[in-house]
């Protein structure tokens, strides 16, 4: 991810090398290049505008540092702005002070939610927690079974409605699972919800009802990094319909240009918290804005 953006910015900064001091024209030309690089990476236009304006303003106002040449100074500013947009400091999970921590996953179908649920559960186990997965995606045929298979691979139990005995009501499943987790002393409950191919009111309402029933400590919006220009509308719809505290980017191993990550974090003001980058359950980790920014500017 971000390969094109990274190459484009490298070219831009190369043009500044050897300059003693940045003129207004240099700053304008650089800003234009950064704008093109971001647009090519599929970053949403309003986000690009805001980003470029911030970089320009700082480039003009920045104290001339003795230690850095003009090119390095611009790189530093772009780096800091990228880190800010992606959420600043690495945002860690907030665990409940007492009782099980509840994490609700929301997102479109195909975003990688079910896979992510198992990855997150395995990661939590490695952090010394005793997680349980809850199958509340009763919409998609096989979603429950897929979660059960993944849960088994991760060595994490899955609470799911028993076949033939299920109420078909995901809110009831979520509520009962939380009670069961309390009884059995599991300390993190990861709830997988239904996704649709597009944003729809019924899906939002169902996720909101589950949220109200289990009062999650964290709601995570799971989104395919390849989503491109649809990113902003989709994220905004989930923010309005369900609300979320952080973003999980999936399929970072694909050839996504990375714009979605920047657009979503910027438009929603929610940090990217986790990154999922492959089909294996271990292809998953905390997202570090500073490391990602450095990678872009490497
Ligand atoms: P859901 O509909 O949101 O629950 O999505 P799934 O978890 O079923 O994932 C949809 C498809 O994307 C599956 O084929 C997954 O194997 C695949 N997938 C999920 N996460 C990743 C990832 O990080 N990288 C890649 N390459 N594929 C992924």
Automatic annotation (TrEMBL):
The keyword Cytoplasm applies. It comes from the Bacteria. GO terms for cellular component: signal recognition particle. GTP binds at residues 107-114, 192-196, 250-253. Coiled coil: none annotated. Part of the signal recognition particle protein translocation system, which is composed of SRP and FtsY. Keywords: Cytoplasm, GTP-binding, Hydrolase, Nucleotide-binding, Ribonucleoprotein, RNA-binding, Signal recognition particle. Residues 271-284 form the SRP54-type proteins GTP-binding domain. The keyword GTP-binding applies. The gene is ffh. Involved in targeting and insertion of nascent membrane proteins into the cytoplasmic membrane. Binds to the hydrophobic signal sequence of the ribosome-nascent chain (RNC) as it emerges from the ribosomes. The SRP-RNC complex is then targeted to the cytoplasmic membrane where it interacts with the SRP receptor FtsY. This is Signal recognition particle protein. It comes from Nocardioides anomalus. It is found in: Cytoplasm.
